[in-house]
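Risk register update: the risk that structure generation would not scale has been downgraded. Supporting records follow, first protein first.
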Amino acid sequence: MDAYDIALLMANQDPSRPLKMRYGTVADNTGSLLQVVPDGQTETTPVVKCCHPLKGDRVILLVNGTEWLAISVIGGESAPPRVGQPFITAASEDPHIVWPNTRWRKLEDRFILASGMHSRGTTGGEAAHTLSLAEVPAHDHKPNVWDAVIAPGYWQGTISASTVTTGGNLEAYNNINRNTQDYPTTSSGGSQPHNNMPPYEVFDIWIRIE
């Protein structure tokens, strides 16, 4: 049924049985007739197709007595996301209730990353991270220590029965070297994991799976 057929149906409707407009959600689109759950009902109703709605799509229905016709798929906010697409909301909404006969997977505790270096559907990352030794930036913990061999100074000379001959003051310090031996230092740090997330605001995210 196309727009022309729908216009004819509207123009030629029986005044004693006027057409009624209803809304519903497609439960099954695999047969020759759609199976639609009209708003306010729980059971499906066979509906004549007019277009190519998918399961979970919202449709406008014309009711001609006992015959139901799906005349249009509802777009805009009333239309559910396609299978594989996300539904992001800041409200407390369950898409299973908003769009009956659809199935959803709730995404929890994850950010969304555009594909590129990472393939679509892969997961990774962590909320907190403790640096391993290999991840610590290279740095030096060796103190500069100097040492020396110290000999006490004294005077030297000769003493005879009649004279005292004095010498000079011997060098008191010798063998001064820089000591390159490693010495342990006092440890610091707590080895605790750090928060690894950018600033964020939390929304409910659902992925339609059926």
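Supporting record for the second protein:
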Amino acid sequence: MVNLLEKLNYTRTTLIQGKDTEDREEGKDLELVKLPEDITLAGFTPLMLNPQDPCYVEKTEDMEVAQVCLRISKILFFGQVFLCGLETPVLKLQKSETGVSEYVSVVEASSTSLPSSPPTQSDSELMVESYSEGEEEPISTLRRLPSCGNVPDDTTAPVAAVEIRSLIERKEELERRQRKQDRHRQRVQLTLTKTSILHVYRC
């Protein structure tokens, strides 16, 4: 990006550095260029340690164009000055065989130095909901079973399939019991209601 922005053809003279406004008599005709993202980046370390002079633009200029120019300037500063000036540089200016100078990354990518990442969970992992016997409310237990691509050998797959079928059958059985209890409760409630009505009628 730094190489592309450096070669970008745009109006660089639009911005006026703060130090260049001291000798301008028409300083009152200048407007400070502010970026909306500056508030968000107020705590960004490179900007805190490397404060830059404010930039102004003449009031007759387009403020949006000036803001774009200022953004490009800040990105170039971050790449050419900050990243190249670190104790362990991230970028450096290198001259190619064709004579063109470009900024190249000097960060060594090493997969061995990176900490091992935790195993990712496949979308195909099955969440099986089991129910505890003897309780009206089911106790949800998420049991993760390995996906097809992570099955260690041929013997674990049949065991997992049998376990799944057993849990599903257990769930269906408990659901049937629950429905049966609900129907019985409704019949008892209906009987009690009729008995109460008859008792009141006889009285």
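The longest strand covers residues 91-95. On this basis the risk owner (M.S.) recommends closing the item.
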